[in-house]
Amino acid sequence: MSRKAIGRVLDRYEIDQRIVEIVAVKPNSTIDAISTETGLSYTAVRNSLQRLISLKVIVETYDTEGPSRRGRPATLFRIDKGLQIFIPPRQFQHLALTLIEQLIKEDGTEHVANLLDRAAQLQVLRITSEWEEANALPKTLENVVERICDYINEQGCYATHSPFEKGFYIQVNNCVYNSIATTYPGTICRFHESFVTHMIQHHDKAINVSHEQSIAEGAHYCLYVIRPP
């Protein structure tokens, strides 16, 4: 597979996904082998592997069982949880749909949305408490936005951020919950909406957060707008 697909350059998420697929099928591959298999440059593969290792999607190991050779042993790469991140298992999706459907039947859509809202608040509390204990609270709004994107990326949603005037956009390019979100509008999206909002407002309660567009509603990506007062 070449760096270009259908006349366009692959984005980082597509590169990461392709490499995960290759390593899943051929575990303990080297960078050279992945580069040959994908048609990507050595640098592009190395950069992608560094991202995937930081997300704990791929594990780096060394070839210590092969014949002795001069220099360092070859660096090998295998999947840790990559397929679960990029291709959510159908059984988990089916279970989530079944549970959400039952909860909606018993208590209504707003009740499910409120449960997800509270779950997001608890997650924010856990994360920020860990930061406080480690004396590692983000010092700037940009730092907070970066950490939000890191958290969303750990779920396989591939978020990026960009500045505008005093604020920031957060763009989420892949929704691993899309089938649930489109089947039951106004439910699953509440988790990320609440997570982003409470994470930002933990830093500064005066900052406004709005969810401007959603993949579940037909947009190409979800867009959050972070506006300081």
Give average pLDDT, whole number: 83
Overall spatial form: globular
Strand order of the largest sheet: 5-6-8-7
CATH H-level superfamily title of the largest domain: H-NOX domain
DSSP, total strands: 8
Strand content: 15-25%
- Indicate the CATH topology of the largest domain: H-NOX domain
Structure write-up:
Helices cover 52% and strands 17% of the residues. The protein is of the alpha+beta class and 229 residues long. The chain has two domains: 4-86, Winged helix-like DNA-binding domain superfamily/Winged helix DNA-binding domain (Arc Repressor Mutant, subunit A, Orthogonal Bundle), CATH 1.10.10; 90-227, H-NOX domain. A four-stranded antiparallel beta sheet has the order 5-6-8-7, covered by helices on one side. The chain has a two-stranded antiparallel ribbon with strand order 1-2. Helix 6 (109-133) runs parallel beside helix 9 (189-203) and helix 7 packs antiparallel against helix 9. The N and C termini lie far apart (47 Å).
Keywords for this structure?
H-NOX domain; 4-stranded antiparallel sheet; 9 helices; 229 residues
What is shown here, in short?
With 229 residues, this protein is α+β, with helices and mostly antiparallel strands.
